[in-house]
TrEMBL record:
Belongs to the RING-type zinc finger family. ATL subfamily. It is found in: Membrane. One of its GO terms (cellular component) is membrane. The chain crosses the membrane at residues 6-29. This is RING-H2 finger protein ATL12. Signal peptide: none annotated. It comes from Striga hermonthica (Purple witchweed).
Length: 204
């Protein structure tokens, strides 16, 4: 009986000693949770996000006619693309996890897709083999260009993609998937000499 009372006394003493530390830990956890909630509320009040047209949260686009969803080539669910050779993932520049794009104001800006007529006005090229010191691959599908393949050059930034890959992208959002520069420009043109000399492309 005396041993039981002694054991209970020791347990109560340990609880009494540990209680202040438990209260401190509880207070810190509660303060951290409140800070997270305050930050989330402040972000909602100061900046709004607008979804990039044509993309769902899981990086799929829905065909309105068939009702089926198609995954965007080269994108994982968290807006990264995986290099099959190195096994590393790379986040797509300019995209947040909810498929929005941050600008200097802290808000997200929608870039509308190109019209079919505007799309057809973009340079249309045949890939003729890599130039000196260049190793090219399409940033959308991550496949290397092959001789004779149809490629399209964005006139505002000079980035090159497979025609099928970039056309599908630009119909949904009219920005380069690499640098997010608007692809719709009637003022800038791609020089045939610079393109063919640097990248081994032949203007059609």
């Amino acid at each position: 009986m005396e041993m039981t009372i002694w054991s209970i006394s020791i347990i109560l003493l340990m609880v009494w000693i540990a209680l202040p530390n438990l209260l401190i830990i509880y207070t810190c956890v509660r303060a951290a949770a409140q800070a997270v909630r305050d930050n989330a509320r402040r972000d909602e009040e100061t900046g709004q996000s607008e979804r990039i047209p044509g993309l769902n949260r899981d990086n799929t686009r829905r065909d309105e006619e068939t009702g089926q969803s198609e995954r965007i080539p080269g994108l994982n669910r968290d807006n990264t693309r995986r290099d099959e050779e190195t096994g590393q993932t790379e986040r797509i520049p300019g995209l947040n996890r909810d498929n929005t794009r941050d600008v200097e104001t802290g808000q997200s800006e929608r870039i509308p897709g190109l019209k079919p007529d505007d799309l057809e006005s973009l340079p249309y090229l045949d890939y003729g083999g890599p130039g000196i010191g260049s190793s090219l691959e399409c940033a959308v599908c991550l496949e290397s260009f092959k001789a004779g393949e149809k490629c399209r050059v964005l006139p505002t930034c000079g980035h090159i993609f497979h025609v099928g890959c970039i056309d599908s992208w630009l119909l949904k959002t009219g920005a380069c998937p690499i640098c997010r520069t608007s692809a719709n420009s009637d003022e800038l043109e791609v020089s045939r000499e610079s393109v063919s000399g640097e990248f081994g492309l032949e203007m059609v």
